[in-house]
Amino acid sequence: MSTIFGIPAPALYGQILIGLINGSFYALLSLGLAVIFGLLRVINFAHGAQYMLGAFVSYGLLNYLGIGYWLALILAPLIVGAVAIVIERTMLSRLYGLDPLYGLLLTFGLALIFEGAFRYWFGTSGKPYAPPPQLTGAMNLGFMFLPIYRGWVVVASLIICLGTWLLIEKTRLGSYLRAATENATLVQAFGVNVPRLLTLTYGLGAALAALAGVLAAPIYQVNPLMGSNLIIIVFAVVVVGGMGSILGAIITGYMLGILEGLTKVFYAEASSIVIFVVMAVVLLIRPAGLFGREA
Q1: Which residues contact 60 (CB under 8 A, 6 or more apart)?
Q2: What's the whole-model pTM score?
Q3: Residue 4 scores a pLDDT above 70
Q4: Are 57 and 75 in contact (CB under 8 A)?
């Protein structure tokens, strides 16, 4: 059996794959957080709950309505995005212009409510969610066997992240969104409905979290705690990439996911803290993050 740095090659490749999969979810979730913070200046602590809601909506669509994975991949983000729009219009919009701490406390409270409600209804044991038949099985790459569904998750995440970045950075809608964060009054003077724009932005961020939840359901099962177990790591990823940096969230998500996977191979005891160690080092050297702008 071939080895790399004294590590069996299959074990190393397997951990890199796990790192890529985790990095895909880190990138998707931190992307949604970065979109919301960068354009609304809201620290959305409910993001983990919206990720969990996406998984549970897809589970409910399958078990109660017979709607399979592919349609759930579209419907679940739309449903969670609609719930987020109601939250933004009725609660979050009242906090714009105040200290960001108020938005953090509100969204943290909402996260606790959602998590508590689903723990009461479904318990804490995971609910199985089968992948679609088209994505079952594995592919022999020669140097390792790649589970098809996990490969799909990596590819889908890359496409969604790139598409979102292009939407924000390269389209007229994205230019309106970015301009509204700098000078909302001026943008509104040109006939743009800024409140509606901000509402849609929050809905988009929540929909990205829900989409990640649907993708995660067949891998990690559907669990009320799945969001709270992940949200702290995702916040660390956003801080390392730079608060509000779309590109930073994507690149840092994949980079730290792979680093975490490699750490499990070479020094497994440190794998649960390596992301936070990187965050501490980055904050000491560059407080704005790797891709963030200095104030």
Answers
A1: none
A2: 0.91
A3: no
A4: yes
Q: Are 92 and 106 in contact (CB under 8 A)?
A: yes
Is-contact 27 253, C-beta < 8 A? yes
Tokens 């949604």 found at: 32
Domain boundaries in the chain? 3-285
Angstrom distances, CA of residue 245 to CA of 53, 233, 248: 25, 17, 5
**CATH 1.10.3470 given to domain 3-285:** yes
Q: Which residue has the higher pLDDT, 112 or 4?
A: 112
Confidence of residue 188 (pLDDT cuts 50, 70, 90): confident
Phi-psi region of 13 (alpha: psi -120 to 50; beta: other; left: phi over 0): alpha
pLDDT tens digits, one per residue of 121-178 = 988 888 899 999 999 888 877 767 788 999 999 999 999 999 988 888 888 877 777 6
Q: What is the pLDDT of residues 28-79, one digit of tens each?
A: 999 888 888 877 788 899 999 999 999 999 999 999 999 999 999 999 999 9
